[in-house]
Amino acid sequence: MDSRNQQRAGARSSARTGGASSRDRGGASRPSSAKKRRKWPFVVAGAVVLVVAAVVVAFSCWRWTFANDAQDIQGTWYIAGTQKTVDVTADGIKLADDVTYSYTIDEGAKALSISFGNMEGEARYRFSFDRQTLALRDGETTWGNSLSEDISWTIAALGRAIQGEQASPELSGDSTMVLTRTPQDLSSEGASGAAASQVASQGA
Fold first, then answer.
1. pTM (2 decimals)?
2. Percent of the chain scored above 90 by pLDDT?
3. Would you list the domain boundaries of the chain?
4. FRET pair for 167, CA 20 to 30 Å: which of 34, 117, 121, 180?
């Protein structure tokens, strides 16, 4: 009898010990799962920071190091929709045979400091993605203002580029001008002339 009682007592003790061990293991797994759940917000936040940093770096490289504004602004431009030319050299903007403005360029603020005789002024500029269109706006600007304008314009221009469209760099405000590398009206006239010549040759 004593041996049977001892066996029953041992079995009950083992059962209690096993149950306690199971509870301990279950309790140990719960904190581990909680730790994993707590890590997810940090992982997501880290991914967002990396994406934002990549966008900032890409935009900065495109805005300030991708191209040479001082060089790209030089050459012959046409006022959009006209045949009137504007010739830009390294230090002058020639609007007519007897009208040439002196200028210096600030590529950081995307601004021009212009002078003509005793008159001085400033102008804001922006290139299109393909550097074939140039927008100008008369008036002072700041580094921060031009940056905020270009960020919003770049986002919109990228959206249009995805759709296969070229966004105009035209600036908002008064006293603005858009210059292009090709005379738009001459191009249309040339196309009409070519079409007329083709019709005439077919008739002959």
1. 0.64
2. 36
3. 1-66, 69-192
4. 121
